[in-house]
Amino acid sequence: MEFLPRLWFLVGSTAAGKTALSVELARFLGAEILSCDSVQVYRGADIGSGKITPGEMANIPHHGLDLCGPDAAFDVRQYAEYASIIVKQMQEKRKNLLVVGGAGFYLKSFFTPVSDSIIVPENVRREVRQLYERAGLAGLQREIAAYGPTDFNHSDWHNPRRLLNILGKQRVVGQSQEKVKQNFMQKICPLTPFPRRVILLERDSESLNRRIERRVEAMLRGGLVDEVKFLGKMCLPLANAIGYREVRNYLDGGQKMTPEELKRTIVAATLRLVKKQKMWFRKQIPIHCSANLDARSANESFDFIRSFCKNSGLWN
Question: Is this model's pTM higher than 0.70 or not?
Answer without folding.
Answer: yes
